[in-house]
Amino acid sequence: MAEVNSDLLCQLLEMGFELEVSQAALRQTSDLGQAANLILTGGVQSVPEGGGGAVGTAGSGASAPSAEPAKGGEATQEQADMATLNLKPKSEAQLAAEKRELQAKIAEKKKEREQEDKRLERERELKRREMGKGLHEAQAKFEDQQRKRERMEAKRERDETAQRRKELQEQLRRDKEERKRAREERENAAKAVESAPKPAAAAAPKPQVEYDSCQVKVVLPDRSTFVSTFAPDAKLMEVYSAVMEKNPVPFQLMNTYPRKVFTDEELLEVSLRDAGLVPRGALATKAL
Predict the structure, then answer these.
(1) Which pLDDT score, from 0 to 100, does residue 236 have?
(2) Most exposed among 37, 137, 244, 274, judged by the fewest C-beta atoms under 10 Å?
């Protein structure tokens, strides 16, 4: 008698097939699909549990041949074989016990599958959590990099502003030194003229008034005013720097009439005398 694969038998029972038919089908083939097909098409050969009996179709109602001699005292070859092997069919109690055992195996395998499903679900949940954690860490890293870039950009702008201010201050210092040398040259020239012999008196032209300072009034963006005194040959940049020290807010320096905004080149090159601010004048500002 061939042994029946219990795992395949459990699967056939789960499909709804009868125990005896499933066992008979699995004795004919070890393939689950073929066994199910044999049952569905009625091709299962019914073999008694003792084996070697008459062959019939499962579920057809054919009974196994008796080991008793046939009428007339003659026994068939099959009956003789069964008598020789002394094989007996299993009792209903044995079949019920086997069925209970198979049902227990089915329940156990079902429990194992449920446990496996739970384990797989836990693994999927852990993977989802790890993926979510990875996304959160990536987002936090991106935001941190963005903040670093913003800080670096702000620092770069501050450095550039400080560099421009330093360059303007250096230019202002050079302008002051240049004005000082020019003033000394004018004073020396004036002394030389005074010490030179004067020609015969003639009709002296009307002397031109020379101013050694001028007063400049600046209207600030908040409508307040700033008044200070500068040298006539001082550049507009000196006025701009003086106003910046009092009101460190970015602005543009401009003439009052006609209204004209001075460029950076004009601030460095145009003097107060050239701008018509000697001996006194007024300027305005425009906030940036």
Answers:
(1) 93
(2) 137
Q: Is 142 left (phi over 0), alpha (psi -120 to 50) or beta?
A: alpha
Q: What is the pLDDT of residue 202?
A: 52
Q: Could you tell me if residue 276 is left (phi over 0), alpha (psi between -120 and 50 degrees) or otherwise beta?
A: left
Beta bridge partners of 57: 45
DSSP H or E run through 240: helix 236-246
The answer to pTM > 0.85 is no
Helices 6-14 and 32-41, axial angle in degrees (round to 10) = 50
Closest CA to 14 of 95, 97, 101, 102: 102
- Say how far residue 26 (Cα) sits from the centre of its chain: 57
Q: Average pLDDT of each block of 10 consecutive residues along the chain (288 residues)? A: 80 87 89 89 66 39 37 43 46 81 83 92 93 90 94 94 91 90 87 70 61 91 91 93 88 88 92 91 90
DSSP 53-102: ---EETTS-PPPPPSSPPGGG---HHHHHHHHHT--PPPHHHHHHHHHHH
- How many whole angstroms separate alpha carbon 19 and alpha carbon 98? 9
